[in-house]
Amino acid sequence: MTRPDVVVVGSGPNGLAAAVTLARANLRVLVLEAEPTVGGGARTLDLGLADGVVHDVCSAVHPMAWASPFFRELDLPARGVELLVPDVSYAQPLPGGRAGIAYRDLDRTVEALGVDGPAWRSLVGGDPSTVVRLALGDKRSVPAVSPRRAAHFGLAVLEQGTRAWDRRFLDDVAPALLTGVAAHAISPMPSFAAAGTALLLGTLAHAEGGWPIPRGGSGALTAALVEDLEAHGGTIRTDHRVRGHADLPVAHCYVFDTTPRTLVEVLGDRLPARTRAALEAFEYGDAAAKVDFVLDGPVPWTVPEVGRAGTVHVGGTRAEMARAEATVASGRHAELPMTLVSDPAVVDERRVVHGRRPLWTYAHVPSGSDVDVTEAVTRHIERFAPGFRDVVVTSRCTPAARLSEHNQNYVDGDISAGRASIRQLFARPTWRFDPYFSGRDGVYLCSASTPPGPGVHGLGGWYAAKRVLREFGITTTPSLAP
Ligand SMILES: Cc1cc2nc3c(=O)[nH]c(=O)nc-3n(C[C@H](O)[C@H](O)[C@H](O)COP(=O)(O)OP(=O)(O)OC[C@H]3O[C@@H](n4cnc5c(N)ncnc54)[C@H](O)[C@@H]3O)c2cc1C
User: Which residues does UniProt call coiled coil (predicted)?
Assistant: First the structure.
């Protein structure tokens, strides 16, 4: 490639979203990726655990990809990406052989929740597009939603983010079901960050797309992005870690799909002192330790309906989950850590190879933990699925401290690339009005450390790319249609 117009550092969903958008505007785009494989948090790899069985090394379940205006415009189905929708978006097994079930069908969920059905409908039965506009915007523009709906969402966050969170519930199933979703924020609970997460993901669970799992794994999303980028003249160079300024080819602009920490390492004194200090003050949160299992049968959940869920939140009651997250926040390991589980074969039978299937799990642990959580995760699943050990063929744990070995963005195992706190919802990565501009001319950030934050939605990349286009005098965002 002749001298690129834009160099994108990192090929996660945000980096590729930026690259695709810029390449479609006829700019020469070069993506530099540190790892041998592209995709960052959206990679599906053969870990060598069982013949032909592939695993999602990071993300596995994609309500945000389905809801994302970027991926909507890209039109994943037209590109052959099948987003398979489980009838049960997620489930919450509970002590005493009970479970909360979030069907994609809202009415069915409300009915099953009995006395708390109306409360459920009021909290997560609203219009998904309103919630998406509120939660997945650039946190700077005013979202185009009705003030009444915005107020309803805001009040629900206030309620579920404080000790008033049990106020409207009469039973313990619905609150546990909602708290399992809140726990995706990896933060103490109740908190506003966790409540916002619960209301966004909880609402999407009942939207048309539910909590989908791409056929073949998350790598299908990356493959679609790479294909489009290359079709528009973009180039990707893997095994190219950018450690310092010297690793960057000359270009007009640079877009970093990295953490602020990496940006500071690379640019150092080239950043204005105040900006550098603000980026260095960006905080990283608690962590996840991954356990990839290979099973020779489905998980034997006590409540069979749990086995129909694409995602299972293993944490018990609301109080138990809050206690486990508080333990992690205090820097200790929970005896039964909050654990997220997904069996993709629930919707994608092709993931079963020679009778063996992958089971994707991760548990919440303190930042930087080097603990192998295989036994803790196994014990926790056994609590709600006795006999689980008997279907495990093999497993592999990646402790939190080692997550950054395959993705530098996961600082000390923080899979959100920055603490999910109410401050860092907006000061992401700093309070700057233009959150994508690094403070140095021609240099931008687009990763999950920028708005709207973590998740496979490509929106940080898309929003940053729109900003970069202005550097080239391009005022119309290119269409992403196939
Ligand atoms: C275990 C786990 C489970 C998750 N589950 C889900 C889920 O189910 N659904 C969901 O929506 N989200 C999930 N996430 C979060 C999601 O994967 C991330 O929020 C998302 O991938 C962020 O995208 P990104 O483009 O900002 O960064 P990333 O996807 O993290 O990509 C960053 C890329 O930049 C590269 N890079 C970093 N530094 C350099 C450098 N110096 N030089 C060159 N390249 C560099 C990295 O190698 C990487 O490829 C999960 C994450 C993890 C780790």
Answer: none
Distance between Cα 260 and ligand 1 center (Å): 14
**CA of 101 relative to ligand 1 center, distance in Å:** 29
Q: Does a structural domain hold residue 267?
A: yes
Residue 32 CA: nearest ligand 1 atom is 43
Domain assignment present for 19:
yes
- Can you give 372-397 as a three-state secondary structure string? CCHHHHHHHHHHHCCCHHHHEEEEEE
> Is residue 460 classed as helix, strand or coil in its secondary structure?
helix
Over residues 333-383, the pLDDT tens digits come to 999 999 999 999 999 999 999 999 999 999 999 999 999 999 999 999 999
Q: What is the pLDDT of residue 312?
A: 98
Q: Which domain holds residue 45?
A: 6-77+215-284+407-471
Question: Nearest C-alpha to atom 50 of ligand 1 is from which residue?
Answer: 59
> What rounded mean pLDDT belongs to the chain?
97
Q: Are 24 and 232 in contact (CB under 8 A)?
A: yes
Ligand 1 pocket test: pick from 407, 446, 457 the residue with the most ligand atoms within 8 Å of its Cβ: 407
Measured from CB, residues less than 6 Å from any atom of ligand 1 are 9-15, 32-35, 40-42, 58-62, 64, 241-242, 257-258, 262, 288, 290, 362, 407-410, 415, 447-448, 454-456, 460
pLDDT tens per residue, range 147-159? 999 999 999 999 9
Q: Please give the backbone phi and psi of residue 334, each rounded to the nearest 5 degrees, phi first.
A: -75, 145
Residue 230 inside a domain? The answer is yes
* Cα 229 to ligand 1 centroid, rounded to whole Å: 18
Task: Measure 409 CA to ligand 1 centroid, in angstroms.
Answer: 7
Number of domains in the chain: 1
When pLDDT is cut at 50, 70 and 90, the band that residue 1 belongs to is low
Residue 46: CATH number of its domain = 3.50.50.60
* Mean pLDDT calculated for residue range 234-242: 98
DSSP 127: -
Residue 308 located in a structural domain: no
